[in-house]
Design goal:
The protein is of the alpha/beta class and about 375 residues long. It has 15 helices and nine strands. The strands form two sheets. Strands 1-3-2-4-5-8-9 form a seven-stranded mixed β-sheet, with helices on both faces. Strands 6-7 form a two-stranded antiparallel ribbon. The protein is globular.
């Protein structure tokens, strides 16, 4: 049995990453000591100011150090700012910087609890610069100060100890953060592939906001991709940038507010209008089981959730309705009669949709010669 006086301290067991010495003094000082101990994970939201500081850190280190992909097809390739995502940030920055204190990233940079104004539902694979751009647009549209906190799981959870994710769903930090009175609701950050709708935890976050806590708002952020839309009768491309579908149904398109056209991203609208929650996947099969059982309101003792259930259809309908109008508009614009008929055979909901410039599906179909 070893002498207790010879045991290693946390700082000896887990030194800070070697690249930290290359940081400016003020930036380095932020990560030398834990700023706060915040026992309740639901209270570990991050402000846009703190996200800005993280962006500065990430860009500086990526410029000076070569960090490489650890998994997948790009394994061994250098990670650069345009492709950086939450998987990279967690592996290369969050875990190394918090290893000495065995805490969350928020606890490094905060001075006390930070209760969320909004809960962010997102896929870790989304390029981080796009996530920041979309959240900044959300902040601007809602006229929120830079101190407004957003709850992001990567930064709020202690990545060295995720045991609290294994209990009842109602006690997970996700559910509890959304349920706080400070939290207006859930904003879902969509990538081009609509990945959040294929992840069961993101489905749970929608379910909690729209069904369990009915006083919460649900909003969707997406991004117009390069050269996917035109304006001025097809003469110019709409610049890439964020789009927000707010809880009241109003769409806020940055490019349109700049006088450069644009409407809610087509791919996101079309995929969102066809979402099937029971098809969502999880890294751990037991997570999918417990979440689908909760949505179906089935006994926890059931070995497997039902493959189909009226509650799934109810959730699907609620989520699909958020995208139907924009999807109908997209199909009408492109003359996709099959896609349009596929939506309309189930319901006429969304046919009265108007894009942010006031145009309707019927108008854009006629404008582009799709009279069928």
């Amino acid at each position: 049995m070893g002498c207790t006086s010879c045991k290693e301290s946390p700082s000896e067991r887990a030194p800070l990453p070697d690249w930290i010495v290359e940081l400016p003094n003020d930036m380095r000082a932020e990560y030398h000591h834990r700023g706060a101990s915040i026992p309740d994970t639901a209270h570990r939201a991050v402000t846009m100011e703190q996200i800005g500081s993280l962006v500065a850190l990430l860009q500086l280190v990526l410029e000076r150090r070569e960090m490489v992909e650890l998994y997948g097809q790009r394994r061994g390739e250098r990670i650069e700012w345009p492709v950086l995502n939450m998987y990279h940030i967690c592996d290369w920055f969050v875990k190394p910087l918090t290893a000495r204190e065995q805490c969350s990233w928020v606890e490094l940079v905060a001075t006390g609890p930070q209760l969320p104004a909004w809960f962010v539902s997102h896929a870790w694979s989304t390029q981080f610069h796009q996530t920041v751009e979309m959240l900044s647009w959300h902040q601007e549209v809602h006229q929120l100060p830079p101190t407004s906190p957003y709850w992001l799981c990567t930064l709020a959870n202690n990545q060295h100890n995720l045991q609290e994710l294994g209990g009842s769903l109602q006690q997970t930090p996700f559910w509890r953060a959304i349920g706080l009175t400070s939290c207006h609701g859930v904003v879902q950050v969509m990538d081009e592939a609509c990945t959040p709708h294929s992840r069961i935890w993101c489905i749970l976050e929608i379910y909690v906001a729209l069904f369990e806590l009915k006083n919460k708002r649900f909003e969707v952020l997406a991004r117009i991709q390069e050269e996917t839309q035109t304006y001025r009768f097809g003469e110019k491309y709409v610049p890439a940038g964020p789009a927000l579908r707010a809880a009241d149904g109003v769409e806020h398109i940055r490019s349109r507010q700049e006088g450069k056209g644009g409407f809610f991203p087509q791919d996101v609208a079309e995929q969102g209008a066809c979402v099937e929650v029971q098809e969502a996947q999880a890294s751990r099969p037991e997570d999918k089981r417990s979440i689908l059982l909760a949505i179906a309101q089935a006994p926890k003792s059931e070995s497997q959730p039902p493959t189909e259930h009226p509650r799934y259809a109810e959730v699907n309908g609620k989520v699909q309705s958020l995208f139907r109008g924009a999807a109908i508009y997209s199909y009408a614009l492109n003359g996709n009669l099959e896609g349009l008929c596929g939506l309309l055979e189930h319901s006429s909901e969304g046919v009265g949709y108007r894009s942010s410039d006031g145009s309707t599906p019927v108008y854009v179909a006629a404008q582009h010669g799709h009279t069928e």
